[in-house]
Every structure is written in C-alpha cells, then in structure tokens.
C-alpha cells in the first residue's frame, strides 16, 4: 500500500514538475499582459522574437480584468508590459503609479493626440466606432445622424451592443467626456430600453448579419476582418460611420506601457519601441487585425475606410474615466 | 497519526472555498453588501437564475423519470439500445451542446431556450438513478395497489413515485447544482445568470467585491437546494421488509400508443443528440477548408491529458487517507474529516476558482498563476467523486483478510501486496479515471486558473466558440466529446449492472 502511494506521489510530482517548468525561467522571456486580441499578438510577437531573440509570453484577458489584476498584484506582478484595447484601463494603471516612463524615441513616432502628455504609455493602434446594420432590416437613409439618437423610442428593438466589453465601455466614456454625466445617463437608460445585449462584438456582428437585430454598435474591424476571412458573418450587413465629430465617430486608442516593477525593463522598452516603430507598425497593418496604425509612415490597405477620412470628436486620451463608466453602466442595470 | 494529519490537510483544503466565502462576506460588511444586492442588475440575475433552476429541474425530472419508466417498466422494444441513447447526452458537455444549438438557430436565445438546452444536457442525471431505483423496486406493492382498484397512473403517483423519490430527488439536486454552476452553455445562449454574472464582473474588475458578493449568493442557492432536498426526502422508511426475493416487475404493455411513445423518444434523441452532433459534423466539414488547427489541437490535447492525469491521481491520493480513516478507524474525528470533503461537491467551479485566485494572491503569491494551483482547484472540485469511489473500494478489503494472510505465513507487506492491493487497485483506477474525465472537460474554473500559456481543449474550444468562430471550434468540440464517452459508458453501465437482467 505504502509503496503504491509513494509511487503515485512520485508520478504526480513528475507531472506537476514538468508542467510547472514549461512556464517560466528564461531570463530573456518577457511577460506581456495582453488585453489586445490574442490572435494579433500571436502574429506580432514571433516577428519581435525573430528580430531580437527575446521571447514573449502572453497572459491574455480583457482590459478591465488585467488592469484590475495589475493593480491588485502591485509590485509582485510578473508583468513586464501591459497592452490594452482601449485607454481607460491603461489610465487606471497609470494612476496607480505602476508605469515606467517610455523612452522618448518610442513615443516620438506617434502623433501627440494619441498618447498621454505624461509619457508613461503610448497608443499603438486605433479603432473607429461604427454602426453595423442589416440592409434587409433597415434602409441606409433611416440610419441616425448621431449615436445618441439610438436612445430615442423609435429605435426600440433595433439596436444591439456588448456592454460587458471594454470596447463599448470606452465608447460610453467618450460620450461621458463629450456630453456630460446627465446626458450619458439618459442615453444609457434609452439604450437599456431599446437594445439587445450580447456578449462580445463578434456576437453583435453575427446577430446583425443574420437579421436577429437591425443594427449594432461596435468597432470597425470586426466587419472588415470577417470580410477578409470568409464573409460568413458579415456579407449580409454593412458598415455605417458616424461623421461630424459625433460621439459615435469616436476613435479609441489601444495603449502599450512598461511596468515600473518589470523584471525585464530593457526588453520591455524594446518591445514597446518595436510596436511604435515603422517596422512594427507595418507588421500590425499587414496583420489580420485591420486596426489603424498610428505611425503616420504606415497606413492600412483598402478596402478599410482610410484613417484620414474619419471625422472623430476630440477626446484627450487620458480623460476617459473607466470607473465612472462602470458606475453609470451599473446604475443603468447593464452590470452589477 | 500521520494519516490523521494528512486527512485533516485534505479536509482543510476542501473547505478553503467555503472559508473564502464566509471570510469575504464578513469583510464586505452589511452596508456594502446591501448596496450591491439592491443594484438593478442583481434583480435580473436572480430572476434568471431562479426560473432557469425551476424550469430546468422540472423539465429534467419529467424527462428523466418518464424515460426511466419507459425503459424499465414498459414493453418498449429495444430497451437496452434506448438506455444507451438516453445516457449518451452526458458525453456531450453542456457548453458543446449550447454551441451546437446556437450555431444552428438563434431561437434558443431566450429563457425557454436556455431551459430546453440545459435540460437536454442534464436530464440523464435524473434518468440514471431513477433507472437504478426502478429496476430494484419490488413491484408487489403495485400489485397491492392494483388489487385495491388503483389504475396505472394512480399507482405510479401514489406508490411508485414515493418509493423511488430518493433517487429522483438526488438526481434533481444534481441537476440543480449543475445548473447553478453552468457557464459555457448559458453564455453562448446569451442567458445571464449569477454564474455568468460572476465572470462578467471578473472581467470588469478582477476579483472585486461584486464578484465575491455574487459568489456568496450562488453558494446560498446551493445550500438552499441541499436543504430542500433533505426536507423533501424526509424520514419515511422505504426499505423492503419481508423474506424472499423481490419479484420481477411486470412490464406494462404500451399497446396501440407504442408508436407515439417511440416517436417521443425519437424526438428527445433528436433534440439532445441529433442537433449538437449534426451541427458539429456540419462545422467540421465546413470549417476544415479555412482553418484546421493541427498544432493547437495537439498541444491542447497534451495539456488536457497531463492535467487530467495529474488531477485524477492527486484527487485519488488525497481521497486515500480520508477514506482509509473512515473505513479502518471509524470515529468522530474520521467522520468530521470525511464529511468536510463533500460540501465542495455542491460548489460551482467558478466559486472554487475565485476563492483560489483571491487566497493565492493574498497569501501565497508564488502559487498564483501556476499549474499546481490549477490542479488543486480540480482536486477540490472533484475530490468528492474520488472519495466515494475510494471509500467503497476500501470497504472491499476488510482488515481480517490481511490477518488471515499473515496467519498463513505472509509478511505484513506481502499481505498488503498480494491480498489488499489486487482488491483495491481496480477501484482506485476507476476513481482516478472518473476524476480525470471530469477534469478533461472542465471549463469554468480552468478559464480563471489556467496560468500563462496553458490552454486545454475546453479553453481552446471556448476562445473560438465565444468569438463566433464555429468552424474553428468544431475539432475541439469533437475531442471533448470523445474524451467524455468513457465516463458516460461507465455511468450508464453502473445504473443497470447492479440489477442484471432488468433491462431487456
């Protein structure tokens, strides 16, 4: 009996040991807390690895999850680099004093509006808010001039979105920044009454495309990506870009920052520098992502609507208040 | 002494999640807790969870008991084949079933759809124990009822149902606990409940107070179910008294309505197996052209098998001291230790995961985000299954067998090797297999606890299915089903072999 027990224990130790050892250990392995699309970094990281010989390990999650995790882990965090899809979570980590200044050469290629004045992180790609719609459910000329119109009673049952996601929360943050708290509260209440809630922007796209619901609020690239892949979830739908600096034309910035307590500060700086460099930006532009590169030396190939043709409102990247947005979403009953 | 220490350690580990819930509730304070519980979203989650629970349990009981009656107590043709078909949905994890449905039709994105889909996944949990109970039931009481003028229906409700009610209630309790813990299927069906709410909250603010509060409410629901089951089971005596062997029950003739009943069973089989499997095959054929994730599938399979073996072994080893104490050293302490292991059976994976994340970050940061912590999570979740199996196995090897062996000249070690070991090894292996198979298809806890770079079949499936990449998710779904088949087969066989010959 004892010998079997001993053998079993030994076997477990071996299994656990091999499993545990596969994870960490390499001095030149960067740990990236990645809230950007997993698939995008799985395309970009190998190119960086090939160029520099520095290994990249991804911890994937959502903006708010990884942001809160970093704040809770504090100095003990294994993270070297933090990548977000939107700015509020990055700003929260910045406010917690966890970010190290980026090297000037890293932020220099990115135009000033797309990075904070603090220099503690930088934007590296951007995404535009759009309304995806199903032409068989609603005609193009019936689409609203402003994203705020979607809260009006005539839109009941005709709009969908994913309020638990960081993307929609960034859009709400922009509305809050541009229109103030009362208007944002009223807008969210209208959306709650009118809208269908889905979990995930891909689900929003698929539901609009299949005619479950007439329109959906999300970012531009979901539709373009699906078109580039197979069109299966997008062929029956179209994109509508808001104009005239409407909050619905909001451009959200994906951020990159280096943690103050990074175990590999030099490599981490190198990684972010790669992301903003012409080479890295070209790799991002050529990837499946179809998000807008921010280095003016690089641009997305058609058919994606050119960055220069967008008419976004002016929103300072550091001004978006994620905590307030969560409070508003909670009061409107979208989250607890 | 060492045994007691080991057993106490295992018991304490099992109680960690409950301790976490109690401590964090105390920390939260009544004012904050009340504030969280009065937020608008909470009402939605509570209402959705309640109606899913009531609807899902009711439908599962109707389907499970009805089918068991058909298979055991009627002259249904090919009853053994039907038995297999009716157990088979257990081999399709609920989240794969949800994927099959949602990738076929949006019509199931409603409260009714959610109730239907989860019931189709979980009714075998009522069906199996009911089959076992019905086959062992002495039908003479029914004959008495009939002789007193009761019809088939009347005797079913007044005599048979009370007699098999412990099995039905036990199954209903299991269904309820599974529904409370279900994440994947409901998330795909866009039906928010307390559990999906915890995951939403986790993504919003990591393990913030809102997630903890929801976990507390979820645990309260689980305890409520346990209490209700105890209450409903009551104290009535149900054992057969009298000498002789119970008579084999007569099978009721279906007669002219046979066609209708077979049609109903066919419909059930189509909904519970046909829809997910056809949908899966469709996506496999359809998706292979664009993306066959050979490398991902291989590495996910290896990781899953590694974790399954580690989880199964460790859970079985952890169950050994507990069961050994309970069998060989009966007493108050042994009972306390053994009982401490079982509450985890009622805890949803999400609560166990949330507890381990919080405890490890606060107290043992070195363990956070590691494979050992993930395995500990599996052990806590599935230890009750291992403990039941190991205990019944150890009962097969009473100490006097070893005494006899030593009296015949064997050394103590030799007796253990030649007598005890052959007796218990198959049972230990079976316990380990059951836990391993459960680990292999676990999704919710794995999503939270899997460290950097560790992806299992379930998490790989999930990242694709939740992003509407149905074709890319299909190979992982197929692998998950293949992984779940052996456990289903074991369970299906166990329900009938205890009463050989009762199912034609």
Report the C-alpha radius of gyration of chain B, rounded.
Answer: 24 Å
CATH superfamily of the largest domain in chain A: Periplasmic binding protein-like II
Structural class of chain B: mainly alpha
* Number of continuous helical runs of chain B: 22
Instruction: State the total count of DSSP E strands of chain B.
Output: 0
- What are the segments of chain B in which pLDDT stays under 50 over at least 5 consecutive residues? none
In this structure, how is the largest beta sheet of chain A organized?
A: 11 strands, mixed
> What is the H/E string of chain B?
HHHHHHHHHHHHHHHHHHHHHH
CATH superfamily of the largest domain in chain B: MetI-like
How many separate structural domains of chain A?
A: 2
Unreliable spans of chain A are 17-25
Note down, in words, how this protein is organized.
The complex is a heterodimer of chains A (336) and B (504). Chain A has 336 residues and is α/β, with parallel strands linked by helices. Chain A is built from twelve helices and eleven strands. In chain A, strands 1, 2, 3, 4, 5, 6, 7, 8, 9, 10 and 11 form an eleven-stranded mixed sheet that branches. In chain A, β1, α2 and β2 form a beta-alpha-beta unit. In chain B, α3 packs antiparallel against α4. The chains are: A alpha/beta (336), B mainly alpha (504).
Brief descriptors of the model:
A: alpha/beta, D-Maltodextrin-Binding Protein, domain 2, 11-stranded mixed sheet, 16% strand, B: mainly alpha, MetI-like fold
Question: What's the SSE blueprint?
Answer:
The complex is a heterodimer of chains A (336) and B (504).
Chain A lengths: L1 H20 L7 E6 L3 H15 L2 E6 L2 H11 L7 E3 L3 H9 L3 E2 L3 H4 L13 E13 L25 E3 L4 H14 L1 H14 E3 L3 H9 L5 E5 L1 H9 L8 E3 L10 E9 L5 H12 L1 H9 L5 E2 L28 H10 L5
Parallel strand pairs in A: 1-2, 1-3, 6-7, 6-8
Antiparallel strand pairs in A: 3-10, 4-10, 5-8, 5-9, 5-10, 5-11
Helix pairs in contact in A: 3-4, 6-7, 6-12, 10-11
Chain B lengths: L1 H27 L1 H8 L2 H34 L5 H9 L6 H9 L8 H12 L1 H13 L3 H8 L4 H30 L2 H5 L5 H12 L3 H25 L24 H30 L6 H35 L3 H10 L7 H15 L7 H25 L3 H9 L4 H29 L3 H6 L7 H9 L4 H28 L7
Helix pairs in contact in B: 1-12, 1-14, 1-15, 1-16, 3-4, 3-6, 3-7, 3-9, 5-6, 5-13, 7-9, 7-22, 8-9, 9-12, 11-12, 13-22, 14-15, 14-17, 14-19, 16-17, 17-19, 18-19, 19-22, 21-22
């Amino acid at each position: 009996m004892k010998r079997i027990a001993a053998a079993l224990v030994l076997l477990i130790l071996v299994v656990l040991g091999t499993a545990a050892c596969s994870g960490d250990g390499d001095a030149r392995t960067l740990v990236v807390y990645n809230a950007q699309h997993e698939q995008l970094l799985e395309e970009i990281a190998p190119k960086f690895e090939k160029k520099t010989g520095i290994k990249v390990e991804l911890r994937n999650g959502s903006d708010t999850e990884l942001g809160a995790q970093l704040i809770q882990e504090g100095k003990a965090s294994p993270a070297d680099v933090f990548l977000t899809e939107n700015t509020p979570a990055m700003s929260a980590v910045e406010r917690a004093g966890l970010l190290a200044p980026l090297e000037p050469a890293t932020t220099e290629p990115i135009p000033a509006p797309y990075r904070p004045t603090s220099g503690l992180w930088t934007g590296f790609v951007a995404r535009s808010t759009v309304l995806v719609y199903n032409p068989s459910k609603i005609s193009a000329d019936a689409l609203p001039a402003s994203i705020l119109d979607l809260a009006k009673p005539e839109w009941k049952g005709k709009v969908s979105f994913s309020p638990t996601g960081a993307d929609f929360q960034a859009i709400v943050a922009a509305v809050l920044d541009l229109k103030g708290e009362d208007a944002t509260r009223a807008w969210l209440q209208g959306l709650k009454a009118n809208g269908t809630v889905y979990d995930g922007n891909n689900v929003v796209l698929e539901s609009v495309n299949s005619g479950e619901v007439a329109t959906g609020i999300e970012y531009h690239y979901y539709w373009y990506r699906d078109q580039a892949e197979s069109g299966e979830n997008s062929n029956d739908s179209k994109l509508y870009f808001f104009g005239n600096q409407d909050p619905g034309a909001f451009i959200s910035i994906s951020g990159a920052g280096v943690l103050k307590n990074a175990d590999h500060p030099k490599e981490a700086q190198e990684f972010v520098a790669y992301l903003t460099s012409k080479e890295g930006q070209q790799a991002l532009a050529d990837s499946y992502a179809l998000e807008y590169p921010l280095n003016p030396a690089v641009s997305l190939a058609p058919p994606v609507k050119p960055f220069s043709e967008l008419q976004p409102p002016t929103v300072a990247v550091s001004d978006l208040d994620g905590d307030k947005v969560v409070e508003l979403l909670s009061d409107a009953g979208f989250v607890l | 002494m060492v045994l007691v220490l080991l057993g106490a350690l295992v018991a304490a580990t099992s109680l960690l999640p409950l301790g976490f819930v109690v401590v964090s509730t105390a920390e939260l304070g009544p004012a904050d807790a009340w504030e969280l519980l009065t937020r608008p979203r909470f009402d939605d989650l509570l209402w959705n969870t309640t109606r899913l629970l009531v609807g899902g349990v009711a439908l599962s009981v109707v389907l499970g008991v009805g089918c068991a009656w058909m298979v055991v107590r009627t002259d249904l043709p090919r009853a053994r084949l039907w038995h297999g078909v009716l157990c088979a949905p257990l081999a399709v994890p609920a989240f794969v079933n949800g994927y099959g449905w949602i990738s076929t039709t949006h019509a199931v994105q409603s409260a009714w759809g959610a109730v239907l889909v989860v019931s189709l996944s979980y009714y075998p949990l009522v069906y199996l124990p009911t089959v076992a109970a019905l086959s062992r039931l002495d039908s003479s009481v029914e004959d008495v009822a009939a002789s007193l003028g009761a019809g088939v229906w009347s005797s079913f409700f007044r005599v048979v149902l009370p007699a098999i009610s412990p099995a039905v209630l036990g199954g209903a309790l299991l269904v309820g606990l599974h529904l409370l813990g279900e994440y994947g299927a409901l998330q795909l069906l866009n039906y928010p409940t307390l559990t999906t709410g915890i995951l939403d909250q986790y993504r919003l603010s990591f393990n913030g107070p809102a997630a903890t509060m929801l976990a507390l409410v979820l645990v309260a629901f689980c305890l409520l179910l346990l209490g209700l089951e105890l209450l409903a089971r009551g104290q009535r005596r149900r054992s057969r008294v009298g000498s002789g062997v119970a008579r084999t029950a007569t099978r009721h003739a279906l007669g002219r309505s046979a066609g209708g009943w077979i049609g109903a069973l066919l419909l059930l089989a189509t909904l519970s197996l046909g829809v997910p499997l056809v949908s899966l095959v469709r996506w496999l054929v359809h998706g292979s052209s664009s993306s066959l994730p050979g490398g991902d599938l291989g590495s996910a399979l290896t990781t899953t098998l590694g974790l399954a073996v580690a989880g199964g072994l460790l859970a079985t080893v952890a169950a050994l001291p507990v069961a050994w104490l309970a069998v060989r050293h009966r007493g108050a302490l042994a009972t306390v230790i053994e009982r401490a292991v079982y509450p985890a059976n009622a805890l949803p994976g999400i609560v166990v995961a949330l507890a381990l994340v919080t405890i490890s970050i606060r107290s043992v940061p070195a363990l956070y985000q590691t494979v050992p912590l993930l395995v500990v999570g599996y052990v806590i979740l599935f230890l009750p299954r291992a403990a039941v199996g190991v205990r019944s196995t150890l009962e097969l090897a009473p100490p006097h067998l070893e005494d006899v062996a030593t009296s015949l000249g064997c050394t103590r070690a030799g007796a253990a090797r030649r007598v005890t070991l052959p007796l218990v090894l198959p049972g230990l292996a079976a316990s380990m297999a059951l836990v391993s198979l459960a680990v292999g298809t676990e999704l919710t806890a794995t999503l939270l606890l899997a460290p950097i770079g560790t992806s299992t079949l379930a998490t790989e499936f999930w990242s694709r299915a939740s992003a509407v990449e149905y074709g890319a998710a299909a190979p992982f779904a197929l692998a998950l089903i293949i992984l779940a088949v052996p456990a289903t087969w074991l369970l299906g066989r166990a329900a009938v072999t205890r009463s050989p010959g009762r199912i034609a």
